[in-house]
Amino acid sequence: MQTAQQTIARPAPTLANIPLNPSLSQSGYPYLHFAINENTQAVIPAVAAQEVVIVPRQQITAMPHMAPSVLGLLNRRSRISWVLDLATLLELPTPETPALDYTVILVRVTVGEGLYSAANLLGIVVQQVKGNLRLTPDLVQSPLQQYPSGLTPYLSGCVQQDQSMVLVLSVDAIARSNALLLNS
What we know:
Layout: H1 4-7, E1 10-11, E2 29-37, E3 40-45, E4 49-56, E5 60-61, E6 70-76, E7 79-85, H2 86-89, E8 101-111, E9 118-126, E10 128-135, E11 155-161, E12 164-169, H3 171-175
Parallel strand pairs: 3-12, 7-9
Antiparallel strand pairs: 1-4, 2-3, 2-10, 4-8, 5-6, 6-7, 8-9, 11-12
């Protein structure tokens, strides 16, 4: 039997409390740095991230006829958000056993155009949030390596960080993903 506390999403560290990487200067734009899986790190613009939460798997309601990368719907603070498994969407390796709790980055996305546009939240499941990075546009390079075909539509560039490449992802491209269309 579950207690009420087990089924309530626990807030992860707020974006303001995640430490900045001291090796980068305070100039540049802030990015949220996270691990998609054990071997792949990425960033998204911090202005797009509203909140990072740890959510029990059972709080996400699966929806029929959706792509495998769509985990389902999340009700958070009386707002319904689609939740995507980022590793699956990008065609990257995923763990064989699903996690009991998901780390979800809630990002702000705009749907529609003009008078019919509206701001919504989209949940992106990642393995771990690592912190913030400040990046200047000159640090973002064109991808030097061959990346899986599922990754390239969402890739804005990459950044060399320590001994690994960090992917710079486009939140808008993720929000426009065909995965969010119904499969019939």
